[in-house]
Each structure stands twice: as C-alpha cells, then as structure tokens.
Amino acid sequence: MVSTSPLSASIADSRQYLPPANPEGTLSPNQQLLPLTATTTPDDHLSVGGCDVVDLVERFGTPLYILDDHTLRTACRQYRQGFERYYPGEALVIYASKAWNCLAVCAIVTDEGLGIDVVSAGELLTATGAGADCDRIYFHGNNKSFEELTLAVEVGCRVVVDNWLELKTLGELATREGKTVPILLRVTPGIECHTHEYIRTGHLDSKFGFDPDQIESVFEFLASQPQLQCLGVHAHIGSQIFELNPHTDLGAVMAQWVVTAQRYGLTLTELDVGGGLGIRYTEGDDPPSIDTWVKTVCESVIAACAAHDIPLPKLLCEPGRSLIGSACVTAYRVGSQKVIPGLRTYAAIDGGMSDNPRPITYQSVYRALVANRMTAPLAETVTLAGKHCESGDILIKDAALPELKSGDVVTIAGTGAYNYSMASNYNRVPRPAAVLVADGDATLIIRRETVADLLRQDCLPETIRPKAKST
C-alpha cells in the first residue's frame, strides 16, 4: 500500500479539498479532488450537488455512492466542445462505460451526445436500455462469446474486433444473417506509458488486439469479406495517464495503418484513439486538463494525416475515468478503532474492498475527509480499514484526518470510476446504493442490495438439505 502525504503544518482542515471558486465555469473536472459542486453547509457539513452529505447518509444509508450530475455533464461537454474547437473533421466522444455502467449513467452521457463503449452483453443491453443509439455503441473485449457476437450483429452496434477468432466468427455470422457488420480493428500500437502495469494496454506484451505485424494479413482477409465493413482502427495505450507525448505519437502510428489498408483496397474512415486521461486522486496528482488532452490528440491526428496526404477521418476517443471519476464520492460511517501505541491507529468503516477494490488491486491512493466536521483540524494520522476479513482491506494508509469518533461520516473522493463497476459481494456483503444529486435533489439510481438478493441465486439440493432434529 502506498502512503498518502504526511501531515503538514500548512494543512488546516478538509475545506482545502474543495474546488476553487469558478464563476467562469472553466475548471476541468478531472483536475479536482471533489465534484465541482462540492462546498460546505452552515452546519459545517460537506455538500455535493446542493445536497448535505450527512442528510444523504441518514436518508439512504452507508456506504453510499454520491454522483454529481453537474460534474459528469461538464466533463462530457468539455470533451465534446474540445473536438468542436480543435478538429475540423467529424468526431465522436464515446464513454468507456466499464468505468461505471448503469442505466442512469448511460442515459446521462447519451443525453449529452456521447456514444458508449461496452465490453459485454450486460453492458450492451444496459446501454440500449438507457436509450443509446446502436450505431453509437462500440462493442469491445478480447474474448467476446459467440452469443455476445450474435447479439451485436442483431442490434447493429459497431464491433471492435480484437483477434482472429472474432474476425472469422463475425464473418460467418454476417453471412448467415445476410447482414453487413460494421467493425473496427483493435491493434496494439507498441506505445508504453508510465502507469500501473495492470492498466498499460498499448505495449506489445498485452492480451488486447492484433499485433502490428499481423495487420497486413488482417487487411488481406478483410478484402475478401464484403460482409464485414471495416470502418477503421482502434488503439488504446493505457489508463490514468498524465503524459501527453504518447498521444502525440499515437496519431502517426495509426495514420500509417490507414495507408497500409489502402494497398488492400480498404478505405478506413474512423480512427479511435481510445482514452486514458488520468484524474486527480491526491494533491500530488497533476493530470492535463480535458481541453489540453483533446487539443493534443487533434493536433496529432491532423499532422499525421497531412504527412501521409490522407483525408481527415472521423476521430473517436473513449474517455471513462476522466468523465466520471471525479464526479462521485463514497460516504461511510466510522465504527471501531484500534490504537497501537507508537505505531498506528486503525479506524474501521462500514465498507471497504467490496465497494472499492482499487487500493488492494492497484495500490491506488485516495483522499478522505470527515463530511460532518469540515472545519475540524486535521489532527491525526489514521489508517482507514475496511470491514472485510482480509488484512489487505485498507482504503487509505496514513490518512490525515480530524480526531475520529464512532459515527463520523468519512467520505472518499474520486470514486466514480472502477468502484461500483468492480464492486463484489465478498464476505456476502451487499453492494451499496447510489444516488444522483443535482440542484439540491437526490434521486436513487441503484438500490442497495439486501441479503435476500444475495441468497436469491443460491440453490440448496434436497440431498444436502439439513434434516430436522428429532426431539
């Protein structure tokens, strides 16, 4: 586990984590620790979306995901408007819904004019159930099942083909159904970024995509498959990236693939550069703004197309974390504490690795605050421990916090991406509820699971059913 920054004399209280005043509306959400609407109430509580977080946990319970509508919509608009500003050709922003796929989130991004990237039948049907247009849904994944590919052909979404098995299976399905299937090819660009090794997907040693030395064989195959309409190519170089140079390099690599396709009679009209822009989880993080990232990508593709004398393609990108990560906080109640003199103080919360597996999986670091005492001085260093039967169930090691009391509402910032979507029922703990906050109103978007929900899928055969005890 990576420690957070130690206590500093310059740190006063939790208000330091609030976004600065922004009358011009120019703050980039991914550069803020908390949602753009975060502020304090007269009662010294944290407020998000005009809603008192303490009131929300009284109403909906804990743990509780609190999603700010304004922050999510602002990020969507900054991406979309950035492409309008910097790219003279057609463009489409596609939400990488693996970050958080549910009906409400898919409906919001669809309402904001974005497409949706899905990686399973469940995500696909959630997107269509939220009203997304099928021709704006891009189906990813390195091992799509036959049933998932069949569903993709039936609904008419775009399929981002990852390997030879998928390519040949789609060809057979398209012929059988008498349909033309629109596809993109995922190709590994061989570009590495300085990020966690589990979320680097652009380097050659990756489970994703065709290798560059396969691309000509793939194009040759597609030239004989008129039922497969190859629209373009896709590449993704990783997640939680703060660097801009890899995105500059990516345009040149992808433009070369377009030129190669022409030799096989294929005209590629779409370039999908993936996503990967990082967010600010702690004060030490300094990601580029959404606008800067979009400008870099656009300039890269424009320059690469000019160098190869090819028309500007439809430019696609697939942000996930940078759209929704900073739009959500998770609220917990503090329970027991354990003080080990001279070593550490543990404070247990009523959630943990089942609602946020990123610290134990990626050694991810977060920032915490006490939502019911925003002006309380940060007086101690505490390790926030989850409730699960796992020594590694630590949300934050050495967090700077006020002196904690049982019942305090501890809130973790930046939990919109890969928290609910990776949540589990470890130790048979039900998954939390989620609410959408906007203009002082809170709306339930995901119900809290119950123990009955957990037992619903269980089957107890008669042969092992406990027998009644004789008296």
From TrEMBL:
Statement: the UniProt record of this protein carries the keyword Transmembrane helix: no
Question: Which Gene Ontology biological process is one annotated for this entry?
Answer: lysine biosynthetic process via diaminopimelate
Residues of the active site are: 389 (proton donor)
Q: Which residues form the signal peptide?
A: none
Reactions accelerated catalytically: meso-2,6-diaminopimelate + H(+) = L-lysine + CO2
- Region Disordered, annotated ranges: 1-39
Orn/DAP/Arg decarboxylase 2 N-terminal domain: residues covered: 75-324
Q: What is its EC number?
A: 4.1.1.20
Q: Does the keyword section mention Lipid biosynthesis?
A: no
Could you say which residues bind substrate here? 321, 358, 362, 390, 418
Write down the top EC class of this protein.
lyase
N6-(pyridoxal phosphate)lysine is found on 98
Which molecular-function annotation in GO is an example for this chain?
Answer: pyridoxal phosphate binding
- Binding residue positions for pyridoxal 5'-phosphate: 276, 318-321, 418
The metabolic or biological pathway listed in the UniProt record of this protein is:
Amino-acid biosynthesis; L-lysine biosynthesis via DAP pathway; L-lysine from DL-2,6-diaminopimelate: step 1/1
Q: Where is the composition biased (Polar residues)?
A: 1-13
* Keyword line: Amino-acid biosynthesis, Decarboxylase, Lyase, Lysine biosynthesis, Pyridoxal phosphate
Q: Which cofactor does it need?
A: pyridoxal 5'-phosphate
Q: Which NCBIfam families match?
A: lysA
Listed under subunit, the entry gives: Homodimer.
Q: What is this protein's function?
A: Specifically catalyzes the decarboxylation of meso-diaminopimelate (meso-DAP) to L-lysine.
Q: Which family is annotated?
A: Belongs to the Orn/Lys/Arg decarboxylase class-II family. LysA subfamily.
Record-linked PANTHER family: DIAMINOPIMELATE DECARBOXYLASE, GROUP IV DECARBOXYLASE
Protein name, entry field: Diaminopimelate decarboxylase
Q: Whose protein is this, by species?
A: Phormidium tenue NIES-30
Quote the gene name from the UniProt entry: lysA
